[in-house]
Please model this.
Amino acid sequence: MSGQPDRHQRLAVVGVMGSGSQEHSERAEPLGEWLATEGVHLLTGGGGGVMEAVSRAFHEVQGRAGCVIGILPAAHAREGPPRPGRGYPNPWVEIPIYTHLPETGRQGTHPLSRNHINVLSSDVVIALPGSAGTASEISLALRYGRPVVAYLSRRSDIPSLPQAVPVEGQLEGVQRFVRARLARRES
Model:
């Protein structure tokens, strides 16, 4: 599934979830570069850390077909319209989706969390190292039946990672997983 798609074909959306504070660039950057060559859109939570690193790498690939989409949480505001939290969107987000949804982190499965949109809008979910927010997105991917793979050095890089989630230590394994799931989507 590489190269330029037919202009009437909907591009697949690959969601990449991970730490909002640490980039884990040794995984995020090659992943972003590879996804940009696959003719897909990249979806993240639009913030820092892994989200920013994978978005930057994806964005910098020349001639890519897809866009960088960021689903942004709202800051807790007492008055006026909802606004994104500090650091949202990161500079690489091309299509920011502003939400009214403030819950994040340990509250990531709460109905007022944007994580539901992150997962439901993704055809495939890739999880990089992260904490409670990443774990909640994985939980939602399993709940909603979205294919999910963890790209980690150790299963413990995401707390309480369910055994149902395959872990790949190398990019090649992630590539095989994603390509196989997207091929099923197309058939």
Q: What stands out?
A: The chain has a mean pLDDT of 94. The helical segments are 25-37, 50-59, 115-120, 132-144, 171-186. Residues 171-186 form the longest helix (16 residues). Residues 25 and 168 are 16 Å apart (CA to CA).
